[in-house]
Structure formats: C-alpha cells, structure tokens
Amino acid sequence: MTVDAPVQIRDVSHRYAGRPALDGMSWDATAGQITCVLGPNGAGKTTVIEMAEGLRRPQQGDIKVLGVDPWRAPAAHRARVGVMLQDGGLPGSVRPLRLLAHLASLYTVDDRADLVDTLGIEEFGHTATRRLSGGQRQRLALAAALVGRPEVVFLDEPSAGLDPHSRLDVWDLVRSARDRGCAVVVTTHSFEEAERLADRVVVVAAGKVVADGTVSAVCAGNSADGDGTLESAYFALTRTARTA
Amino acid sequence: MTDAAAPAARIRAQAGFESRTLLTNGEQLLVSLVLPALALIGLAVSSAPHLGAGRRIDLAVPGVLALAVVSTAFTGQAIATGFDRRYGVLRLLGTTPLGRSGLLFAKAIAVLAIVAAQTVVLAILGAIFGWHPDAGGIVIGVVLLLLGSWVWVSLALALAGVLRAEATLAVANLIWVLLAAFGGLLVPTDRLPGGLGSVVRLLPSGALGDGMRAALTGHDTSLVGPVLVLLVWGAIGSALVARFFRWSD
User: Does A193 touch chain B if contact means CB atoms closer than 8 Å?
Assistant: First the structure.
C-alpha cells in the first residue's frame, strides 16, 4: 500500500441483502501503472469499481481516488477521472462523433481528435450508436472514458468483443494513457489481456483480495499445482477462496 | 491538467444535447408536437366533444397546450429517462464533470426549452384557427406551464426511476392516452361524465387543463384550486423522486 497512490481501497466491506459482496477488501492503483483486477463473477470486482467511480457508497471502509471520497466528489474531481462502464452507457440514438463532441464540451480542453483517429471512430462516426457493432461500441465507450485526458481511468472489460486488430489498438491506447502517467484500472476476465497489459494484478474472490503483485510474482507464488501461467495461478487462488 | 468546464457551460451543453436528441427522435416529436397539433386541428374543425360556454377555439387551445406539456414533460421524459437508465447513460454521465445534479438541471432546462418551442408552434396554429387568448392571462398561463412542467417531469422521473424501461414505455403511453381522453386536459373537468370530473379535478392533468383554460379565457378567479393541486402534486412527485429514483437497473 502506498500513501500517495491515486486509487486507495482500504478495508472496504459491503453487503447486499445480508450477503457479503466485499469483505475487507484493500488494494491500490499507482500512477503510471496498469492495474488489472481479475476475479470470478460475484467476486466483488464491479461493486468495488463502482464505489471508486462514485456510483456506489461503501457501507464500511474507506475509498480515496486522487485523495477524494468519490461518493462526494466535486466536478473538478470528476474531470480527472475517466470511466468505461461494462454496459457502455452510450445513448442509442446519438451518433458517435456528436457524443464525443458533447462529452468534450464538459471539459476545458478538447482532445478528442487523437482518440477519434487512434480508435478509428471516424469510419462509423455518423452511424447511430444503436446500429454499431459490439466492437465499435466498445471503441466508442473507451474514447468516452479517455476524453479530457484523465489522471485515473477505470476500464471495465475494455477489449471484450473486439477483433484481434482492434484489441491491439485498444491495448496500445491503454498503454499510452499509462505512459503519460495515468493510473489505469482494468477489470477483465481475459488472462491474455492481464498478461499483456498489467503492471500489477489484483486477484479478488469472495469479496477479498487473494493475490496482489506483478504477473510474474502472482504466478510464482501460486504455481505449485500449475504450469506457472496466470491462468493456473488464478484457478488455484480462486478455488481456494471458494472452498475457504 | 484538464479541468471541468464552468457549471453553467456544462448544464447548457447537456440541455442542448438533450433537446436536440429529443427533437431529432421521431417518436418523441410525434408525442410532443404532432399529436397535440392533430388534437388542436380536430377540436377546431369539429363540434364534439362539447367544451362548454364560450368560443370553442379559445377553450381548445389552452387544453392542447396542457396536453403538450404532459406529452413532453411526462411521456417523452419518462421514456427517454427509462432507456437512458437501462443503457447506463445516467450512470456514465454521473461520473463526468456534469454529475447527477447537473444532469437533472439539464433535463429540466431541456424540457422547458421544448415546452417553450411547442407552445409557440401550437399558439401560432391556434391563431390560424382564430384563437384570441385573454392578454391578461398570458403571464398566468406561462406560470401554469412552468408549474405543470415541474409536476410532470417529477412524475416522469418517479416512474422511470423505478420501473424497467419497457414497462415505463408502456405505462407512460397508456397514461397519456387516458389523460388525453378523460384527464381534463382537452375536455374541461365539468364536462366529464358522472362524478369523474370531481376526481379528475384533483389530478395534475385536470388542474393544468382547467387552470390553462381559466387563465387564457380571463377567468382568473377560479385559478386557486388548480394551482394548489399542482403544487401538491409537484411536492409529491419530487418527494417520490428523492426517495425512490434509481440511477441504474
């Protein structure tokens, strides 16, 4: 844990209808790093990320993003944080270029040209969002998250549904955000994505962190029964948490 | 470091975005403008239903303006908000510099802008059919339109914030049809059959319809009841939104 980490999750617990969703979860995301959060469905990934995005309030524990409680964050704080939701959050009747122009108007700096270019949005920029393919919608949602050059960005399954070329483009863009000092938090089910992107991996299961470190450290520490890959380490970790 | 645009600029941008989105949506345009315009033409060229004593067109146009408020502030807004909630648009915008309160402000401004535009169009159409509103009642009519917009937007958000998008679509359209026929919007509550009028008078539709007719025909003395009813429904709707509105499914 680092005191000055842009994203700090500290001993957060939360219950839904009496069932624990988060059980004392703690982890950080550092500036200039890609932190991949891995875990099975129901492990608490989405819940904790929504809390860090200010969409949900934790019942116990403390969350700070850029030093601010995201639930009470002012507009100036939200301008420094980008969010890509799993369900996109894209209005169906609006055209991508108009949507990005509108989102850019909420900030003092309009930097959408680079995003449009890198993600190839121009080619479908005048098509209503509801008519886009899954991959095109995914690219638009990523561009929407990166408008305003955020210092922290939360990306939920950023390459899901993309063809291999588009996936590489998305990963390049995520890396370039990291390289300019952004703290990037990626939730994913893809081991390949985590292995290719992550500077750090946080594995969660049953509402707790079961491993936290570099990909090689997580693999090395949990490779007794496996082949030394992230996939085998993940299954060893999450199986243990399930049966505990 | 990138900063948020000024609050007024953010809300203005979102209000413009919402207004354009609503006005370029065919179904929304149908509900907000085409159907009220057809209602106006229908009432102007026919002699049924009976609207009471006085020039028919002077009684018809205020009712159509009230119907248009319900179309835009309630039906249109409920459906738009329901699907925005379903697709995560409300959640995403809540994480931007706009925030949740900015989004609500912008929605209110967008509704008022569309109500203003449809009022002008319908008033011109009414004038073509010979409508002569009472000059002294125009300001009161505008106040009633504002009050009605507040009431119906709050009820729209209360509906869209609780029900699923498809259910909101069905219920909002059904309510529009029922109110257009029996809600005291087009037909004065004292012309409704049986004891229906005394019940409908206590609904925001009846209050808005009767209030608009009273104001724009110069019968200002009968406005207290409708205004009180609208204030009560506005308070109820706002309380329901504050208590039950959910930003995501």
Answer: no
Angle formed by the axes of helices B56-69 and B99-128, nearest 10°: 160
Across chain A, mean pLDDT equals 89
The pLDDT-based confidence of B22 (bands split at 50, 70, 90) is: confident
**Helices assigned H by DSSP within chain B:** 7-23, 26-29, 35-45, 56-69, 77-86, 89-95, 99-128, 138-160, 165-182, 196-200, 204-216, 224-244
What would the pLDDT profile of A172-212 be if each residue is shown by its tens digit? 889 999 999 999 999 998 889 999 999 999 999 989 999 99
Please state the ipTM of this predicted complex. Answer: 0.86
Listed as own residue / partner, the contacts of B235-241 with beta carbons closer than 8 Å and 24 or more positions apart are B237/B151, B237/B152, B237/B153, B237/B154, B237/B155, B237/B157, B237/B158, B238/B154, B240/B154, B240/B155, B240/B158, B241/B154, B241/B157, B241/B158, B241/B161
The structure tokens listed for A108 are 């003092």
Q: Tell me how far CA of residue B26 lies from CA of A159, B20, B21, B32, B84, in angstroms.
A: 33, 12, 10, 10, 17
Residue A102 to residue B13, Cβ atoms within 8 A: yes
Looking from the CA of A148 toward its CB, the CA atoms found within 13 Å total 31
CA A87 → CA A23, A84, A134, B81, B137, distances in Å? 25, 9, 11, 16, 49
Displacement of CA B211 from its chain's centroid (Å): 14
Mean pLDDT of B89-97: 92
Residue of A nearest to B9 (CA): A106
Mutation target among A77, A99, A105 for the B interface, most CBs of B within 10 A: A105
Question: Distance (Å) from the C-alpha of residue B84 to the closest C-alpha of chain A?
Answer: 6
- Whether A78 and chain B come into contact, CB under 8 Å, resolves to yes
Query: Using the beta-carbon criterion (under 8 Å), do B92 and A102 form an inter-chain contact?
Result: no
- Residue B154 confidence (pLDDT): 95
Give the pLDDT score at A225.
Answer: 63
Q: What are the φ/ψ torsions at residue B202 (nearest 5 degrees)?
A: -90, -5
- How distant is the Cα of B14 from the closest Cα of chain A, in angstroms? 8
For residue B57, name the pLDDT band (cuts at 50, 70, 90).
very high
Closest CB to B4 among A76, A83, A94 = A76
Lowest mean pLDDT among A216-220, B35-39, B147-151: A216-220
